[in-house]
Amino acid sequence: MFKLNNKLIVTGVILALASTLATAGVYNGKQDALDGGMTYPRANGVETAYRYNTQAMSKLNYGRVPTAAELKAWDTDMMPDGTGFPEGSGSVEEGDLLYEKQCASCHGEFGAGGKGYPTLAGGTVASLKNQRTCPGKDAPKRTIGSYWPQVSTLIWYIRDAMPYAHPKSLTNNELYAMTAYLLAANDIKIDGETLDEEFVLDKEQLLKVVLPNRDGFYPDVNGPQGVENVRAFFKDRKNYGAVGTRCMKDCKKEAVKSIGMEITNVVPAYSTVRDLPVETSTGSKSAAEKMYDASCSLCHKTDAMGAPAVGNHDAWAAVVAQGMDTVNSHAIKGFNGMPPKGGAMDLTDEQVKDIVKFMVESSK
Question: Cytochrome c domain location, by residue (predicted)?
């Protein structure tokens, strides 16, 4: 028993010592990460305080080499130099009509912003320097015209991710029309020409677009020196607002930067309380309507997403004609392009049925 206890004590001391060494940072790390942080070596199955798998990987099947056709199908990047720009064309006027039908329900009229969705137009490059240092000071306005550096990112993102409910559904001509409209909404000029409704955008014209903030990002990550540019940027901490000397305890006064113009006269006053407001039965919205607003209104607010819009009597009459059991089953299990429960998997089946009932009752 005495030997056993000694063994336990020794083991405990070793573990405690290992823990002490760990907290002291004895891992042979080097401060050579791109962001100025530490990297640590792997040795004997250990990296810092963690073990990693040292088993042989030779028997794993990594699949086959992709064919040239597969690589071509997957390589769909659209780059600033015109690589990947599709054939096609579209006018500002065509883009305006398409935007109203497919995008305005989320991004607002003329890209002015919607509930919970980004503002696409407005703002200036100068606004990016705005700081909230005093009451009434505007925040930076990051939009396509003020913030985005390359127009290739715009048309590429539209093609791959928009419209929200039906990504990759736009034709090449529609891509150019939508891009043309958004450029016009941001007052972007091409060769000094204002983009009026008749202006037609194609890949040759797209290559001429110079967004106002093209050179506003740093460090320069492009080209063979991109990595070293990033490394040099983070090496000088002043580049990203860090001043003074790093410290974790007994920090000198000059090492701590205080707020220059703290906002104190805020109405209502700042609060650290994180509780949600208490739900009351006297509210103007039912629980079902609130759940609809949170989880279903994106697709059912208008018919732009291909779903029956709440309030459209004829559309919902056709839905209800299938029978409420079928309608509820589709809502819970998913149907066509709609995922189960509209993607809100935290809802119970009964809550989904309540939402369906609300949408049906609101469309009579």
Answer: 90-186, 283-363
* Tens digit of each residue's pLDDT (9 = 90 or more) over 147-159: 999 999 999 999 9
Q: Tell me the pairing of strands 189-190 and 46-47.
A: unpaired
pLDDT tens digits along 29-74: 888 888 878 889 998 899 988 998 888 777 777 788 899 999 988 8
What DSSP letter does each residue of 155-214 carry, written as one string? HHHHHHH-STTSTT-S-HHHHHHHHHHHHHHTT-EETTEE--TT-EEEHHHHTT---TTT
Six token digits for residue 23:
């907290």
Enter the tokens of residue 331.
């809502």
Query: In this model, does residue 5 exceed pLDDT 60?
Result: no
Domains and CATH numbers, the chain: 89-206 (1.10.760.10), 287-361 (1.10.760.10)
128 membership: H or E segment, kind and range = none
